[in-house]
């Protein structure tokens, strides 16, 4: 039996993406970022599903052409089942079901969050479990004990905004555009992270996070100063804000790893692309004698490679889904313990 060829499809938010895998290895991937949302300063759900409808066919055709393959060579279809925007998920799921039915191949519904977590190991046939995962995206900020795929324990989580959301909101307050995370990251490189000390919220008896106070603090700081001062120190303020977020994320994760006896830390999600977070986690894990895994940059933000890779794991264990699975906008990891 040859390694299964899996087509992965991801349409949970504003990236229309497809990837082709042979076994655990990626052959090709295309991620089309929808540009229609830029002028709105955030994702407009109706536009997102309309764009997925328009882009998904050409994107799938594109990966097949790049790979010089055709649909008849595909052994299974992996598709994001949730979490995400209902309409957007539906476009990808319906398309995947149609293909699976037409080609008579298995359908694998994938949890987008699991995709992010295991994106670190794309290409590998072995997973270095157990590990402690810091999952930081636009919708999630969690520290998770990962025993194996499907077996998770929640260690800590945000009590209000997700880290990515904080980046996006502060970018809007500073008027530097959307999406905020990558722009703040870039701007911060020319700023002084010690310019202003924004507050760090932590909880003494828990590994939970909170970022809404920090966001309010940035707003008050902006209101207190002249517009010219803010304009002249944009990079310094961005870097100081980023430092506060990175400081809290990294120190609490290291503390949890220490307390729970973990030797491996895995970063996952869009904010795992942040250059300062990556640098700080590398330094701190080195100091504490821990191992750190950080996903390749192209697998941090939403992509279909991580979905196809999880499809590969499902194919290996023959965990095929029925053609009547539903899109689940609020799908969670199941924290059994
Ligand atoms: O994982 P993701 O692509 O989508 C979700 O599943 O939410 O994460 C998107 C989030 C956005 O909030 C974006 O601003 C943030 O990740 N992000 C970053 C960086 N790149 C993306 N935040 C900080 N620094 C970055 N370089
Ligand atoms: Zn995501």
Please give the structural blueprint.
Elements: E1 5-10, E2 15-22, E3 25-33, H1 45-66, E4 76-82, H2 86-103, E5 107-111, H3 112-118, E6 131-136, E7 141-148, E8 151-157, H4 163-173, H5 180-188, H6 212-224, H7 227-232, H8 234-260, E9 264-268, H9 275-287, E10 291-293, H10 305-316
Parallel strand pairs: 1-4, 4-5, 6-9, 9-10
Antiparallel strand pairs: 1-2, 2-3, 6-7, 7-8
Zinc ion (ZN) binds next to helix 3.
Summarize the structure.
The protein is of the alpha/beta class.
Describe this structure in words.
The chain is α/β, with parallel strands linked by helices. It is globular and about 60 Å long. Helix 3 crosses helix 10 and helix 4 crosses helix 5. The longest helix is centred in the last third of the chain and has 27 residues. The chain has a 5-stranded mixed beta sheet, sandwiched between helices. It has a 5-stranded mixed beta sheet with strand order 8-7-6-9-10, with helices on both faces. The protein folds into 2 domains: 135 residues, ATPase, nucleotide binding domain (Nucleotidyltransferase, domain 5, 2-Layer Sandwich); 165 residues, ATPase, nucleotide binding domain (Nucleotidyltransferase, domain 5, 2-Layer Sandwich), CATH 3.30.420. The mean pLDDT is 96. Strand 4, helix 2 and strand 5 form a beta-alpha-beta unit. Zinc ion binds next to helix 3.
């Amino acid at each position: 039996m040859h390694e299964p060829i899996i087509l992965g499809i991801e349409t949970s938010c504003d990236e229309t993406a497809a990837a082709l895998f042979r076994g655990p290895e990626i052959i090709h991937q295309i991620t089309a970022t929808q540009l229609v949302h830029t002028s709105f300063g955030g994702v407009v759900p109706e536009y997102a599903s309309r764009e997925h409808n328009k882009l998904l066919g050409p994107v799938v055709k594109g990966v097949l052409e790049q790979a010089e393959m055709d649909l008849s060579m595909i052994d299974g279809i992996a598709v994001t089942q949730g979490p995400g925007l209902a309409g957007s998920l539906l476009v990808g799921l319906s398309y995947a079901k149609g293909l699976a039915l037409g080609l008579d191949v298995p359908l694998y519904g994938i949890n987008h969050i699991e995709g992010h977590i295991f994106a670190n190991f794309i290409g590998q046939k072995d997973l270095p479990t157990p590990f402690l995962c810091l999952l930081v995206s636009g919708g999630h900020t969690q520290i998770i004990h990962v025993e194996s795929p499907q077996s998770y324990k929640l260690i800590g989580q945000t009590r209000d905004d997700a880290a990515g959301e904080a980046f996006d909101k502060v970018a809007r307050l500073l008027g530097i555009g959307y999406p905020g995370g990558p722009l703040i990251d870039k701007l911060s490189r020319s700023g002084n992270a010690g310019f202003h000390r924004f507050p760090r919220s932590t909880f003494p008896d828990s590994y939970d996070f909170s970022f809404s106070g920090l966001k309010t603090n940035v707003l008050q700081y902006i209101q207190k100063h002249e517009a010219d001062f803010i304009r002249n120190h944009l990079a310094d303020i961005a870097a100081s804000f980023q430092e506060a977020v990175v400081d809290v994320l990294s120190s609490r994760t290291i503390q949890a790893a220490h307390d729970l006896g973990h030797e491996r830390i895995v970063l996952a999600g869009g904010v795992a692309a942040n250059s300062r977070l990556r640098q700080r986690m590398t330094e701190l894990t080195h100091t504490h004698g821990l191992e750190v895994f950080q996903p390749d940059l192209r697998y941090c933000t939403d992509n279909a490679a991580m979905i196809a890779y999880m499809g590969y794991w499902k194919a290996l264990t023959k965990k095929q889904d029925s053609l009547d699975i539903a899109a689940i906008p609020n799908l969670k990891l199941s924290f059994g313990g």
